[in-house]
Amino acid sequence: MNTEELSKEQRVLRQMRKTLASVVKDATPLGGRPNPLKDSTIQEIKDCFVLISERERELAEKLGFEQAKPYYADGEQPNSNVVNFVKPNKE
Q1: How far apart are the first and last CA of the chain?
Q2: Is residue 51 part of a domain?
Q3: Is residue 75 part of a domain?
Q4: According to the model, what pLDDT value does residue 77 have?
Q5: Is 68 domain-assigned?
Q6: Is residue 73 part of a domain?
Q7: For the chain: N or C, fewer Cβ within 10 A?
Q8: Segments of the chain scoring below 50 in pLDDT
Q9: How many domains does the chain have?
Q10: Which structural domain range is residue 23 located in?
């Protein structure tokens, strides 16, 4: 599998994950109402999320992406400094 094929599969998986998450969000009842989905369906949805994330991890490993660090399309890391803001005392 070349990089272009891996990238396409990653896009497909990302879109599947987003769509499935939207379906779950739309089907989730509000205010303690009963869930319209059966427990078995909910478990199947969870299983789908697990499979998608496992495959995404495999593809990231094949492309040499490190899981702990974000990936930037342009290859450049942003230059930033963390600044702590301390509220002065009212003395």
Answers
A1: 66
A2: yes
A3: no
A4: 63
A5: no
A6: no
A7: C
A8: none
A9: 1
A10: 3-63
